[in-house]
Design goal:
Layout (H helix, E strand, L loop, with lengths): L15 E5 L2 E5 L9 E9 L7 E9 L2
Antiparallel strand pairs: 1-2, 3-4
Length: 63
């Protein structure tokens, strides 16, 4: 089971995030300007007797 959260840091931007198996697609708004950054934080957890959870942060910069 996957859980995706989209938070509005600036009310101007709302992210469209879709999960496709092990892939994640993020649609950047059309009006994003060069130099704008988007911070994507993912959480991954296995399903075992002793669960392990990790977070990864990716920073996307518009060119």
């Amino acid at each position: 089971m996957a859980s995706l959260h989209s938070e509005e840091v600036d009310p101007h931007y709302v992210f469209d995030i879709t999960e496709e198996g092990a892939s994640l697609t993020v649609h950047i708004p059309d009006d994003a300007k060069s130099g704008d950054t988007f911070h994507i934080i993912t959480e991954v957890q296995n399903v075992t007797e002793t669960p392990f959870k990790t977070y990864v942060r990716r920073i996307l910069t518009v060119k």
